[in-house]
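Posting for a labmate who doesn't have an account.
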Amino acid sequence: MLSAMVCEIERYALHDGPGIRSVVFLKGCPLTCLWCANPQTQKKDNELYYDRGKCVQCGRCMQACDWGTLNLADDGIRIDRNHCRLCGKCMRVCPAGALTLAGRWMNVEDVFAEVSRDMIFYQQSGGGVTISGGEVLMHEAFVSALLKKCKEHYFHTAIETSGFGSLQSLLAIVKYCDLILFDIKHADNEIHKKLTGVDNQVILENLRRLGESHGNIIIRVPLIPGLNDGEDNIERIMEIAGTNRIKEIHILPYHSLGREKYKQLGRTYGLETTGPPEKEQVATIKRKLERGGLYVNVGG
């Protein structure tokens, strides 16, 4: 039975597509965007979260660990993540819930059973199910099967994708999509590599090919101060939209709400000193895109 590692199923979402939605976040992404708000979705393997704020430093997790990967320090528990087996023993004995796993294996039937609980809200609001990441293109068979099942029950379906993956996977998945939310991080290839770890040639080619066969694509641009908010980049993204006959762009202003997740995963956040863009700057960019004939939504 087809399965994937799921980080979260967000219910009653009012973003990532029309109406009231369920958003399924899968684990695994080939990009490592500096501003990623969901770092727990990057690695395809499971990971251990440690919430220092909940920890009572009772030491039960250390006693339960058969591998000696947990040690008590002045600032809480230290985890040797290179040797942790993710067996879950520490998590099960923690009285405060300070240790949790980032993902869980679910099959198509499991996920569908959960998202179908809100069928009445989809019907009343014109909503449905959005599959996000991580990167959906890493899970072609699972995503295709889940979307197909959703369509059989007349749910509106959408995916969010970076576009980085095989064209074959993309075209297989979008057969069951009503809407595609396609991220463009930066128009310049070299800058894109520095910001995300991959180039954008595959992404732009996939967008071109997708535009030939699918009429409902929205470009989404995460707006990161000092990294991709320059006038030249905005103009080039506008050109990309025009070339591919795309009429709508969503601007996603940077926020740092995912910063705490990096600490819980034992990682360093790369944009510690970056703040959100000024409202007037966002408004100026919005007006510029609108003058180019695009419908623009801020916030997705």
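Reply:
Got it, the structure tokens are right above this. The chain has eleven helices and 13 strands.
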